[in-house]
Design a protein that fits this description.
The complex is a heterodimer of chains A (151) and B (89).
Chain A (H helix, E strand, L loop, with lengths): L6 H13 L4 E3 L16 E5 L10 E5 L5 E10 L2 E5 L7 E5 L3 E10 L2 E4 L3 H9 L3 H18 L3
Antiparallel strand pairs in A: 1-2, 2-7, 3-4, 3-7, 4-5, 5-6, 7-8
Chain B lengths: L1 E2 L3 E6 L2 E6 L3 H4 L4 E3 L1 H9 L6 H12 L3 H17 L3 E2 L2
Antiparallel strand pairs in B: 1-5, 2-3, 3-4
Helix pairs in contact in B: 3-4
The chains are: A alpha+beta (151), B alpha+beta (89).
Chain lengths: 151, 89
């Protein structure tokens, strides 16, 4: 009685659940939110979008090309947001609020629930704040991981 | 027995799926795929019913063998009870 669905199939139900004040647990795929979210192990608790979004918030959104992304806001400028995965160093500017579907209010990391506004998560966000720093060390880490065949 | 409130049934990718909403979604994470028989049973569980009453309803609606219907009811109700969605209260 369990099944795996694509995000395009799930978008409407995610909206219904979060609009009801509820939570939707999503298991993200991919490596862009490493080291926070490990595919197959960790999940994200999605809730309705708060009135105000700020840098550090993780949001599920749909790009204009129809693809779905769960990334972190790293900046806000003139009503649009700049997004970036924690494991990435190329920012994605120009994301509008109307593209956003839900807000990651908590993370289930290795079985432990971590609220987005917990001190533990805020410390993690602070450590990954500098995109400039990420541009220096992430290419090295990615290169090393590819050499040893790890993500 | 009856089903707890706080679920909606919606169609996802051509399949009926029960999804928790509101407060229920905070204690139950996940979705339950319902085939035709499971959906019928799910709907019966909206009211306080026994397995026998659900079996009677299936036999009346679909003219199927009673023992097969009873086995389906026992299996599906068992899954829902294990998930904490159906209670004997």
């Amino acid at each position: 009685m369990t099944e795996s669905y694509s995000l395009s199939e799930l978008e409407a139900i995610i909206r219904r659940v979060t609009d009801s004040g509820g939570e939707f647990e999503l298991y993200p795929k991919g490596t862009s939110m490493l080291p926070l979210i490990l595919e197959g192990r960790d999940s994200v608790i999605l809730s309705c979008l708060p009135d105000e979004l700020t840098a550090g918030d993780v949001v599920l959104y749909r790009r204009d090309d129809g693809s779905y992304v769960l990334h972190r806001i790293i900046g806000c400028d003139g009503g649009t947001y700049t997004m970036c995965g924690d494991n990435q160093y190329n920012a994605e500017p120009g994301i509008r609020r109307d593209q956003m579907i839900a807000f990651a209010s908590a993370f289930i990391i290795n079985g432990k629930r971590i609220e987005a506004d917990s001190p533990e998560n805020l410390r993690y966000i602070k450590r990954r704040r500098s995109l400039k720093l990420r541009r220096m060390y992430l290419p090295v880490i990615h290169r090393l991981r590819s050499l040893v065949g790890r993500r | 027995m009856r089903r707890k409130q706080g679920f909606i049934v919606d169609e996802i990718a051509g399949e009926n799926v029960a999804v928790p909403v509101g407060e229920m979604s905070k204690s139950f994470h996940g979705m339950i795929k319902l085939n035709g028989t499971a959906l019928f049973i799910w709907e019966q569980l909206e009211n306080d019913v026994t397995e026998e009453q659900i079996t009677d309803a299936i036999v009346a609606a679909y003219d199927v063998d009673r023992s097969l219907a009873a086995a389906d009811v026992a299996r599906i109700v068992g899954v829902l009870k294990n998930a904490g969605i159906v209670t004997d209260d």
